[in-house]
């Protein structure tokens, strides 16, 4: 398939954004930038809590430049910051943007509305695929990931740090939890896969309990390479 105009891929560091990026590449999209948002306060990923430098290492190993922007929790302000960041990349030639949504209509509706406002085409490679098949595709493609956060009312602290594999899929199905954690039940960090030059090694980490809107276990990754 012929390459298309320059494309941005929304990047969280987790499995869904990574698989969406991978599938878009296979479909012929010319992904020039990974766009990631981090908290102004913590300097960590807004939703996954991954440290900014770790996501920079991910991007280096994938070989696509990472554009990291600081943002705030306020949704209205986030939208303005999102549009500003995307518009800056559109000025460099980007005409489409990849997202990793699977089945939440409110997420897709937001993406479509905001992209329409800016005049950029949204690309949703995972949309409407069964969540179980998305996780299986991720695993079968050769990607490796670990759980970096999870809702404390659904999981014990030992769940963070777990490898994403078919055994975990079976456990999630038995608990009637979305296999992709689409409702925020858990988040992941991709450490290896077919688009990585090498595996990211986590050398030192520990689970930490944090209280916010939800009570979450986070994997505090202290050393990596």
How would you describe this protein?
The model has no long low-confidence stretch (mean pLDDT 92). This protein is 32% helix and 28% strand. It folds into 2 domains: 118 residues, HUPs (Rossmann fold); 94 residues, putative n-type atp pyrophosphatase, domain 2. With 225 residues, it is α/β, with parallel strands linked by helices.
How many domains? The number is 2
CATH superfamily of the largest domain: HUPs
Could you give the order of strands across the largest sheet? 3-2-1-4-5
Q: Sketch the major β-sheet.
A: 5 strands, parallel
- Number of strand elements: 9
Q: Strand fraction band? A: 25-35%
Which architecture of the largest domain per CATH? 3-Layer(aba) Sandwich
Order of helices and strands: EHEHEHEHEHEHEEE
* Low-pLDDT regions: none
Q: Which class of secondary structure composition applies to the elements?
A: alpha/beta
The number of helical segments is 6
Average residue-wise pLDDT: 92
Distance between the termini: 35 Å
Task: Give me the CATH fold name of the largest domain.
Answer: Rossmann fold
Helix content: 25-40%
Report the C-alpha radius of gyration, rounded. Answer: 17 Å
Shape: globular
Q: What is the level 1 CATH name of the largest domain?
A: Alpha Beta
Labels describing this entry:
9 strands; alpha/beta; about 220 residues; single chain; Rossmann fold
Task: Please summarize what this structure is.
By secondary structure, the chain is α/β, with parallel strands linked by helices. Helix content is 32%, strand content 28%.
